[in-house]
């Protein structure tokens, strides 16, 4: 029974990572779109307008989402590496016992 619980937990983590990566990709696209809009406003001399400031704030928020996703992915990679090392140690210990 505990094996099934662990498998379900791993599956939900995988689904959360997939969702996180999708959100990060969408946020990257938004950042690019907003950057393009800001360039146009800058070229037309509308840097100090409410629209420019609003778009700038939106872009920063989306960029923060991207940065957070990158950090979470780095942490997951470290965790996966540690888990893989633990599995290898367990296999080695079991090989000695059997």
Task: Report on this structure.
The chain has two helices and no strands. The protein is mainly alpha-helical. The chain has one domain. Helix 1 (2-43) runs antiparallel to helix 2 (50-97). The longest helix is centred in the last third of the chain and has 48 residues, at 50-97. The protein is rod-shaped and about 75 Å long. The two termini are 24 Å apart. The model has no long low-confidence stretch (mean pLDDT 81).
How many β-strands, per DSSP?
Answer: 0
Q: Could you list the spans in which at least 5 consecutive residues all have pLDDT below 50?
A: none
Chain oligomer state: single chain
Morphology call: rod-shaped
Protein topology:
Layout: H1 2-43, H2 50-97
Helix pairs in contact: 1-2
Summarize this entry quickly:
This protein has helices spanning 2-43, 50-97.
Note the main attributes of this structure.
98 residues, mainly alpha, 2 helices, 0% strand
